[in-house]
Write a structure and sequence with these properties.
Helix content: 55-70%
Keywords: Membrane, Transmembrane, Transmembrane helix
Strand order of the largest sheet: 1-2
Pfam families: Nramp (PF01566)
Order of helices and strands: EHHHHHHHHHHHEHHHHHHHHHHHH
Protein name: Metal transporter Nramp6
Organism: Cucumis melo
Radius of gyration: 24 Å
Strand content: under 5%
Membrane topology: Multi-pass membrane protein
Length: 545
Amino acid sequence: MAAGGSGSGQPQFLVRAGDDSFSHAPLIENPETDQIIVPDKESWKNLFAYMGPGFLVSIAYIDPGNFETDLQSGAQYKYGLLWIILVASFAALIIQSLAANLGVVTGKHLAEHCKAEYPKAQNFILWVLAEIAIVACDIPEVIGTAFALNMLFSIPVWCGVLLTGLSTLLLLALQQYGIRKLEFLIAFLVLTIAICFFLELGYAKPDVGEIFYGLFVPQLKGSGATGLAISLLGAMVMPHNLFLHSALVLSRKIPRSLSGIKEACRFYMIESGFALMVAFLINVSVISVSGAVCNAPDLNKEDQMSCIDLDLNKASFLLRNVLGKWSSKLFAIALLASGQSSTITGTYAGQYVMQGFLDLKLTPWIRNFLTRSLAIVPSLIVAIIGGSSGAGKLIIIASMILSFELPFALVPLLKFTSSKAKMGPHVNSTAITVLTWIIGFLIMAINIYYLMSRFIHVLLHNNLHLAAVVFIGILGFSGVALYLAGIAYLVLRKTKEISHLLALTTEESRRLSNDPSKTSGYDLPNEDIVSMQLPQRIRTTNDVN
């Protein structure tokens, strides 16, 4: 099947004349491939056909990295960092919606757009940065799973780190029985621990006024709070999620009319909003429980010591009022489920990044093995040397890396979705453009502020020789300058005036869309995306109802 036609001779894609930048796109060759078909009529019932991608993406917002940063935020600053969760969740909804819109409108995901947009050298650097972000995302999953195995079977943390590779490969092997069933089981287990934290709120009795104050009054008390704020941002708005979401939406076969595309964008935003609201409530409940319990006046000495250096391996005592002696086991099961489900989505994100940037596909188990190996090495070293406390600190560092990496995925996304050449009539409105750039610049500003303040603090408070301090200072400031130059290049570079626009923006494409003999009104999703997560038969919204 050619890119512009189907087996019946009817064009499936509406492409602007003269644009061959996407001529190597991996389209579906087999019309019998399983896919979800959205009816070519406007109805609120179509929402059910769009349900799925947002919930898959939201798993990353309740992964072990989030639990770790939430627990430490509550233990150290009570409710003082809740506003970060609110801001990050709001920003995540807007940013994830833009990622979904990019895929829906253009029929290509973010990594594929980056490859078509940037020169080879810059494209390679963006790919390397994306891979580093995926490895940084995998580190909390590795350590969280190791902690879960330690709580369940008393396995040393360093041994659990080694076993995480086998556990994830086993879970990937089970997908042959149906990825949706597997994800439903994982989501159920994670929801179980969320319910437990909600119930614990009743026992902890946090001050509602203080919680609302923490949610709506921004405050950062000291560099420690700034570091945790960056970790919370990194754990909430992850770079790999932007690549993942823009790819997952391609698994639906939607009508290629203007109204059909608008409906898809609207329903994907509604679905993402609901999924992220659930994740937001879970994160708020974890911080509130941690803040209320660890700052209680009648806390016993043993729990006080746990709160001083709170990590995932010690957090089960927070649920003791609800679960009693089973608190450790159930928390471990939910932590295990959280880590494994996040790893699966990370593996898929890695597939799309590699396929988009390099035109290279790997089987999921090979892809997972490579990513997991890179994540296991630092996790194993830290677990052996620093124990569970060191492993917990590594989760915070990994989350900070994700925050520093975010601009290199976010800026291209904002540029592409603000480009009329790529998005046509579905381009971002002026208000959305201004708002998203403000969010992007605020994230970059807090990252740069923390990086510079910590670096200067290290330079001024050390026992090194003056020559060594000068040398380190030159290297450090050169690195910061390079970081800023990379962001400036992405921001200031003019977007190419070419597009693989599936939206109907040209007179020729509109005429095609109005001629039933020349177009079917649908586009086809990418082959690798369809085979990843769709059900075992063609399904419409009528089946759902």
